[in-house]
Design brief:
The chain has 22 helices and 4 strands. By secondary structure, it is mainly alpha-helical.
């Protein structure tokens, strides 16, 4: 990658991060035509090993001092330990694992959102994880690897404040959550911008890559664009590579979802595999209710006044309201900070964050969509304050705290019961010292509606361990409510695409049989 596009910064971490972006983009293009199976993985790893030894990249590790090596080793042990716990993020079971299974067995399937709307996202981070999930990372711990790369960057670049973030990010190491890479990449790009990195082309490529991983990170390409035009005063021709990646991102979404940006139904091209409007409406209503932590019905929310929208969001029961209040306060404080500093870059960061925040508040103001804002504000305001000694102290204390939570989740379950993810933590098991903890369920029923034969997990709401094609019970109910059901474009080849179709009388009976079976099983 560095031979093709140059380097963003020198060092091991710079090479690895460039490699991550490069191989993800290559696999994204390949996955239109082929699955990311063991053959794709084997070729990629053999090529990687060849260049690792041919270019003697292992010599780069000798550049670390003894103190640096000790710090890296200590931190890596903590990362490996926390990464070995059971996954507990619910999206791991309903979104991450099913997406990766589809990619490894089929690649990108046209109109897959008609099977399960969530699958229409197909984040490029899951494409990256899928390519390494056949034998080198069957436990799906690519985020643990990324955290190790992050500590290498921290030590190589002597940017010690990143040590303060690492303990919090340990909570994302058990699953291939796209939240972790977008936070890490955005902090690194911010660091490079503040440090005076003028490689506008690669900065924009990395920024667009982050957006492709998770579109709620739209603030980052906006920031790099503002920085390029108004601070560096470079021409837009330097940004062509980034726009090319953006084009690939739009094509991927159109292929799987039918629209350029998931889950927004904007830019209708009239494609036959786009989701049913009624299903999109139900999903949109659900997103609005998630904004209010499911504490109000959609009908109740629609009756809110403008003031009610805001006040009820800020006064939800439990920890969510505290996070929402802190989010608004952080933005206000950072705006004042930007006004006092009167530096163009900080002003542009503020503008970019407000743009992203307004968009999130409009579509679905769930706290997980603006977590990155806290990291960015903390970094920009305090990066000059934290030297190595202070950062190591913060890292040590917070690491102990978060390891305690993962090992003894009863603490968070007792004192913060409204933090729902805490209830899915299982604590420490000695087996994880030699094998990362994973769940196995593999109980399912098989049904057929029209020409679509599919599996549904038995008495469980997610399809993480169900052979594909698998449909989440939740979406079966939505489809039947809308009077439609997914069907194969070609009954003999699922790779040729999935559409939705109005059900015939016979298909309605078949679908009702599925629903009755699910309800009876739940009892």
């Amino acid at each position: 990658m560095e031979n093709l596009s140059g380097f963003l910064f020198q060092g091991i971490s710079g090479k690895i991060l460039s490699g991550i972006v490069g191989i993800t983009l290559i696999w994204t293009v390949f996955s239109f035509f082929m699955p990311l199976d063991i053959y794709a993985e084997t070729v990629s790893i053999l090529l990687g090993l060849f260049f690792f030894f041919k270019n003697k990249l292992y010599q780069k590790f000798y550049h670390f001092s003894k103190k640096d090596t000790l710090l890296i080793s200590f931190t890596v042990l903590i990362i490996l330990f926390t990464g070995s716990f059971y996954p507990y993020i619910l999206d791991h079971f309903g979104y991450y694992v099913p997406t990766i299974k589809w990619l490894t067995e089929y690649g990108l399937v046209k109109g897959i959102s008609n099977i399960d709307l969530t699958l229409g996202q197909m984040s490029v981070w899951h494409i990256f994880q899928a390519g390494f999930s056949n034998f080198s990372d069957p436990f799906l711990r690519i985020n643990t690897v990324l955290l190790i790369i992050y500590i290498l960057y921290t030590v190589e670049r002597k940017r010690w404040i990143h040590l303060c973030f690492l303990p919090v990010l340990l909570l994302f190491s058990q699953s291939p959550s796209p939240d972790l890479p977008v936070i890490i990449f955005s902090l690194i790009i911010l660091d490079e911008l503040i440090s005076g990195n003028k490689n506008t082309s690669l900065l924009f490529v990395f920024a667009v890559f982050v957006f492709a991983v998770k579109p709620t990170m739209i603030w980052l390409p906006i920031l790099v664009l503002l920085h390029t035009v108004f601070i560096l005063k470079s021409g837009l021709k330097h940004l062509l590579s980034g726009f090319l990646i953006l084009f690939v991102f739009f094509i991927k979404n159109i292929w799987t979802f039918g629209y350029p940006v998931f889950p927004v139904a904007i830019g209708d091209l009239g494609l036959p595999w786009k989701p049913n409007p009624e299903v999109l409406k139900i999903s949109s209503q659900f997103a609005v209710m998630k904004t209010y932590d499911m504490q109000y019905s959609y009908e109740e929310i629609q009756k809110f006044s403008t003031a009610g929208y805001i006040l009820n969001w800020l006064s939800l029961d439990g920890i969510k309201s505290k996070i929402n209040i802190l989010f608004i306060l952080s933005l206000v404080i950072f705006t004042i900070f930007a006004g006092v500093k009167k530096r163009k870059l900080i002003t542009f960061i503020c503008i970019a964050l407000w743009t992203k925040s307004i968009l999130v508040l409009i579509f679905s103001a769930q706290y997980r969509f603006f977590l990155d804002v806290f990291f960015v504000i903390f970094f920009v305001m305090l990066h000059e304050y934290f030297n190595q000694k202070k950062s190591i102290v913060v890292f040590s204390v917070l690491s102990l705290f978060f390891i305690s939570i993962l090992s003894f989740p009863e603490i968070i379950q007792r004192y913060i019961p409204s933090f729902r993810m805490g209830s899915f933590m299982t604590g420490f098991e000695k087996e994880q010292l030699y094998r990362p903890s994973t769940y196995h369920y593999h109980q399912f029923n098989t049904f057929k509606v029209g020409n679509f034969k599919f599996n549904v997990s038995y008495n469980y709401p997610y399809s993480f361990d169900t052979p594909i094609p698998a449909v989440t019970p939740f979406y079966i109910f939505d489809d039947v409510k809308a009077g439609i059901f997914p069907q194969l474009s070609d009954k003999n080849d699922i790779k040729k695409g999935v559409i939705w179709k109005k059900m015939t009388v016979k298909e309605k009976k078949e679908a009702q049989n599925v629903i009755n079976n699910i309800k009876n099983t739940d009892k």
